[in-house]
Design goal:
The structure is a homodimer. Helices cover 35% and strands 21% of the residues of chain A. Chain A is an alpha/beta fold. In chain A, the strands form three sheets. In chain A, strands 16-15-14-13-7-12-11-8-17 form a nine-stranded mixed β-sheet, sandwiched between helices. In chain A, strands 3-2-1-4-5-6 form a six-stranded parallel β-sheet. In chain A, β15 and β16 (421-429) form a beta hairpin.
């Protein structure tokens, strides 16, 4: 990649030396949508409340519905009070809300962009935002082409003298490799890669960021981080929720596209990548792309099944009866969309030869959890075999959510006059250890985009390589509708998934 | 070693399968001394209270002073109420005390042993102890030869048909190699090595026993337990106490003999030994002896000083002024006895080539602590150099006392929008994890001796190899009285000790 490297790299600078970004304007396309209300505005408010926002940040909501600034602000205030991670302070909200504006336009109406441009030019002069503009694509993905085209035609994609123009793309980045390529092409026509920020909010989570620190700042971990010492890795993302009113979108997407292609492959990359040459955004992303390129393709008709897809049937979650997926609103009664995926991924490189990575993701599972569990090889069975209690192998668990932290399962002698070995846990909790809550992922990512730091965003080739891998899995499925397994809501998924591990002599980790 | 291997090996059996030892009698020489009152009787009482003693255990105190069984029991009751780790239950004490007897005799009076023999024979018939006899040498070391000789001459060293006769030796096992050899010779004339139990109460502590489990039941530790991954090891034993009325004994011994020759070299052996072929007492002790044989001799006039000996001067501990060592009762005003030792030990074998082990032990230091700190090598300074917070290397700390447990220091990202790396600790506490207090070391060791398990006791060759190493250190000192350094009571020892580590670019770990 030879795209321009951003200059402000927080990996190079401590908290004290990191400066608050310069004043800028943030234009949100899809300003009346759920993402804006639940995530973006609460994140921006919290950044302001914590003193992390530039002295002047103008937020312009761009959407179709006619609405006054006042009505827009009132709407966002209600949302922020509901979704903010900290209580909303009236005075701080007042000051914050004064910087929020509404711009009414259809996404495909060039005039709306021209008037936005005029509005931004006026602001630049009056408010000191100086032509620094961050365009946030929070609208539906079908609107992206139209928005990108109009940004280009209105000239908004070009920053005024001394400013910058950046775009944040929300997932999905396409729905397969061809659509992702087309989206990358469209985005590339409007913005250079270095100004294109593809957001993956998993990468904004503290523990995801901590994976690299854990690995490369601790000799005990990196020294064992290879096929000689590691037996296998399990990456889990589970939630008790169903489709929750997103049925229309979800049924066209499914778990593989919605979660695996982006979030879980990103976690896999962070776990498996080689040490980068430095901590610049492109060096890190170069290494992640190398992992994606090393993934052994999962092709239709492989000798052994390495993928299981499931769909929840009716069942009970936390004791409450819930309907099956096909009974949910907006879901066709014969839908073959997967709400669960389990797959064995092999990384064909020197470090990981023979070490399977198992990914498991699903809706209507018993618990809400995202974690990476690194299972180390067992000790040779030469000293403690036959000891009561038995010997479990060591497992390092990186908990992404909830209760971010790290734990290490090890074997210890139980107190008492005879030898009884029990598994115990050394534990580290982010919250209690640092005495403060982690900021929300969106806070970090918005600030990074304002600073021009792309480290935690996906590069175009990452996205495309991930799709290349995922598309082959899908192609196998499309040819074989019979492959869908059903599991009762509230269970840990279809039984067929156990077989994936059983043939390695393994079981899924209990969470 | 071809001494007979005991059959009951608790390392082979779980708690549930470990049987309570058979009935026996325990004869304590030096029954009115401090060790009996503070440790042995409280330990035996606690074993009884927890149901771990055989159905019949007769305890016979052997000492010079004339005393009735009743007076002896009353005396022990007072001591047990003071020193027991759990409150004394009146009913349990009654039952326990009924099994305690007093036998009055000089240690060098053969008649006293003959009458003891008759008493034991009568008991064997009446009480079912069946000729199983455990002799505990809790008298002063100068009495050992006389007691051993009389045991032999009275025939008490030979078990009656179907029974056994074992001896427990308390430290000091001699005061140098020649005296240790002489003691081993005397003990060997009376008892075979397999029936000779040299007690080192550090080995009875749960965490000391856990060192082997940690190392050999956890692939993540043993895989890194070598010169490739470990930078150095620090073994610390510190206490705020002074000589506490033991001045007469202590001044003839000193820290090197009193603590390093036994306790600290044992901890070093457990930390450094190769995996034994099995968990039998002799296999384990074979490996410990190999470590002692690999210790690089510390000879007088070596090119660099690797030993620092210190003596506390007056100072303050926990804010309270305390006198210097030479001002303590029974200490000559020009005593050159060391109350502090720091030494660099090198183990010349493949595993530990180039990894120094630093031992530090002292009285009148600020804290009470015994720990083994394994310092792993630093990560290569290629990614996170210059990051604020800095990078500490990983340290695995095995806490022997107080608060037994294990912790691992690692580097983690501090929550926040920039990269700040802080050391954090993963921690495991014995007490809270298993929800019960560890039994006292003497409980475990007494039970092991009754069961004939010598795993946690020192073998004759271990003791002699340790003395060989220690004697060379002492010889250097005796030739150079000027080498004694003074440190204020309440400090962490003489400044000269810092230089031992400084030349490796290291510092002593802060506790």
């Amino acid at each position: 990649m030879n795209s321009k490297e951003p200059t402000a790299n927080p990996f190079r600078e401590g908290l004290s030396s990191r400066t608050v970004p310069e004043p800028c304007s943030v234009i949100i396309f899809g300003a009346t949508g759920d993402l804006t209300r639940r995530k973006l505005i609460p994140a921006l408010y919290n950044l302001a409340a914590d003193g992390n926002l530039p002295s002047s940040v103008k937020i312009i909501g761009f959407a179709r519905r006619s609405k006054s600034d006042g009505a827009f602000r009132a709407d966002l205030e209600e949302a922020t009070r509901q979704f903010s991670r900290q209580p909303v302070d009236d005075a701080v909200w007042e000051t914050f809300a004064d910087q929020v504006f509404y711009h009414c336009s259809e996404f495909d109406d060039l005039e709306g962009y021209r008037s936005l441009s005029a509005k931004l030019d006026a602001m630049d002069k009056k408010e000191g935002t100086c032509g620094r503009r961050l365009f946030y694509m929070a609208a539906g993905p079908d609107q992206f082409p139209s928005i990108l085209k109009n940004l280009r035609e209105s000239g908004l994609n070009k920053a005024p003298e001394g400013g910058w123009a950046r775009v944040i793309l929300e997932k999905p980045f396409g729905k397969d490799l061809p659509t992702a390529r087309e989206l990358n092409r469209l985005a590339g026509e409007a913005f250079p890669e270095a100004d294109t920020f593809r957001i993956d909010h998993y990468l904004g989570k503290e523990t995801a960021q901590n994976i690299m620190v854990l690995r490369f700042a601790n000799s005990i971990f990196e020294g064992m981080w290879n096929a000689r010492c590691i037996d296998h890795v399990q990456i889990l993302s589970s939630e008790p929720l169903g489709v929750e009113g997103r049925g229309g979108y979800y049924d066209k997407s499914g778990a593989l596209r919605d979660m695996v292609q982006n979030h879980l492959l990103q976690l896999l990359c962070l776990t498996a990548m080689e040490p980068p040459t430095d901590l610049s955004a492109n060096s890190i992303r170069d290494e992640k792309v190398k992992v994606l390129r090393s993934l052994r393709p999962i092709r239709r008709g492989g000798s052994l099944p390495v993928v299981v897809r499931g769909q929840y049937a009716e069942g009970a979650v936390h004791g409450k009866p819930v309907p099956g997926y096909r009974q949910e609103a907006d879901i066709p009664p014969d839908s073959a969309t997967e709400t669960y995926v389990a797959l064995e991924v092999n990384i064909d490189n020197w470090r990981w030869a023979g070490v399977p990575f198992f990914i498991r993701i699903g809706k209507r599972l018993p618990k809400f959890a995202t974690e990476i569990a690194v299972h180390f090889k067992a000790v040779p069975p030469v000293l403690f075999q036959g000891i009561s209690g038995g010997l479990d192998h060591n497992v390092l668990v990186i908990r992404i959510q909830p209760d971010e932290g790290v734990s290490l399962r090890m074997s210890a002698k139980m107190p008492g006059s005879s030898l009884r070995i029990e598994p115990v846990k050394m534990d580290f909790h982010y919250g209690t250890s640092f005495g403060k809550a982690s900021p929300e992922a969106y806070e970090r990512l918005l600030l990074d985009a304002m600073s021009g730091d792309a480290t935690l965003f996906a590069r175009c080739d990452e996205v495309e390589e991930a799709w290349r891998f995922i598309d082959e899995v899908r192609e196998g499925w499309d040819a074989d509708d019979a492959g869908l397994c059903f599991y009762p809501a509230g269970s840990w998924g279809p039984e067929e998934a156990d077989a994936l591990l059983a043939r390695h002599g393994l079981t899924w980790r209990r969470v």
